[in-house]
## 1
Amino acid sequence: MTVNDDVFTNWKHREEIAESMIPIIGKLHRERDVTVLLHSRSLVNKSVISILKAHRFAR
């Protein structure tokens, strides 16, 4: 396995996690009126890439 494969595998894993967060965040917002924030950035109605960018900003 090369370094590129490791990077790609890591990226796909992060993408998968962000994709699984979207319905949970939406449900919290609709049913409980909770706005999920990451360092003052809302994650409600965001795309996978937007969630990953917000996480990168917070790190």
## 2
Amino acid sequence: MVTNLTVKTTRRRAPVVFPRKIANLNVIQHFQLQQVNLPLASKGASDKNAKEQGKGRCNLIKEVKPAKRKPDPNARPKDKAKDDCYKDDADSCRKDDPNKPGCRKFSTYSAISLRTSLDSASKPCEIKKVCAAIPKFSAYDVLVRIGEVAITGSDIHVYEHGSTNSANISLGHDATGIIEATGECIHSLRRGDRVVMESSLSCGICEFCKRGVYNMCNNIIYNGFLMKYQVHPADLCYKLPDSVDMAEATLTQTLAQGCQAVFKAHITPTTNVLIMGSSAIAVASAFCAQAIGAKNVAFACTMPTPLASIHDDFDFDCVRYDVYGDYGEILEGIFCTFQDWPDVVINCAINERTMNIAVMCLRPCGTCVLTECESEGVSFNALDVLMKNIRIIPSFRSKNMFATAIHLINSGRAPMGKMIAARYRWSHIEQAFAAAQSESNYGYKKIVIQCGED
């Protein structure tokens, strides 16, 4: 005997009738219900009579066979033994296990700063080589074998002053590598792809992440890449063209920050751009401004050595001024360089001197973009800002700029390779940090560490 049920809906549609024996949702999800007007079977009717009542009409319940999934042509070949090895705990791995090729319990090296800012200033900062197992990764992550890592200003700051958040913080935030394994849900990247990683990891659930400004995430953390292997979200890994060198690509994040500053200034082919400072982001901003067609791009700085290098290597006009020089002489030098006043100032060395120069030299309705700070507190003429209607725009980190930066490098319009001062092997990491300290004090050059060596 089959007892029929009537399902009532709030939208006043015709009732749907289905037998109680398939009322389980786990069964119904494999069927398609078609809504028809059928007479209800009497309580004592047999199965045969119930079928005859619906004869000549569409079936109430129609079984739908699940469609076969077509194989993805871009899907990587799955090596179960090796993938399982990567996901296993270190204690379960054995070097002599024949069922798990390549399994290594002792598999990666990390450079970690061991000093916090609360420690004594006289205590030297240590970079210690530690060992760990290959980390686990989720279905949306990739396992990256690190190739090249550029030492950034934030790395040097932690190296010199420590970190208030953690005594053990992994260094190296600008890196490239090779995909070693991918999660189950990743089809855009395959094993063997060369990638550059965006190091900042946003939470994805805070107010700013939901608004799309993930660079302002409240819970942002950074992955350090001075190690042999690192797990990273696949959506923050960008595939590199074959023509882009991996060492040059380590400066993609630097170029992305420069692009962010330039795009915020709304530069056009009639725009004169003055860049204050001689840092790596300052040079990257100049590359981007020139690439999108700015009329003139020039630098203003107090340091003669990097300015001479910028002029010789990249053919940009440069204005050198004295730290305590007269404002009138500085403004005269800027005007003579452009034969006009700049429309945009990108300040990559924010201090009282540079802010006053920017406010004084800008044309009315000009734009001043702030990117890098040298002083936390500065004073400048607010009346000039008001009466000249100057826009002051901050540019912090970058968002959605890596694709643009990679395109500029690949097209040759951003020769980031000329910004690499030297490359060091992993075994000479202490010498690499000492050289990076020196370069950061004098200009825009970067030090790159080859993690794939040794």
## 3
Amino acid sequence: MGASVVMTDREEKLLQLVNKNIEANKETIVRGGGETATELMDWNNRAKTAQVALTKGPFDYIIASDILYSSPSHAMLVETLWQCASIDTKVFIAYPSRDLEWEVRSKGVDPVPPDERCLHKFTGLAAERFDSSIAQYYPPTEPRRGLTNTEPSLHFFALTCGD
């Protein structure tokens, strides 16, 4: 495929694990004409995100998973995505709702569970910079055999820079 991939996280320990996986798959990556890199990146560190954006970006695709759990960081996340994007960039984000969502609903504590507030905040901020849509929503599943918890619901977002 020949893809150039940059994987980021704010935790050094997680990047060490990613680097081990890269090393274990090095032959396959090279044979496919690809290259990989990892970067330590915290969205709240503007200098670092700008450096990654300038030296590695802009990116054709940004694929992210499970990054919307902290509402206070959403503004910096949107800014980071914007810095790393070009007019042609497509951003895909997968977000699993947590069990807390269902706990809050069942106890009637708040009519808008934390996960939904989190999603609304992010989509509002993202809409200021990107054309966005919820590409897909998968409701939670029933517990699998032998498990007591339901699988979380999943939200998939697609963002583009638009015209």
## 4
Amino acid sequence: MSYEEAGRKGGEATSNNHGKEFYQDIGEKGGQATSDNHDKEFYQEIGAKGGNSSNGSNQSNN
């Protein structure tokens, strides 16, 4: 089994075992950790990048 397949299966198992609240909680914890570890300048820099992708294309998922 490849790492990719193992990761996909693990993600599917997690999704099957946890609800929406689980993902909201870990998202909130991740956001708080990012906030604790970065300053205002960090958010200004990522905000300035906006929707620009790293490969130069700016495609929307809409």
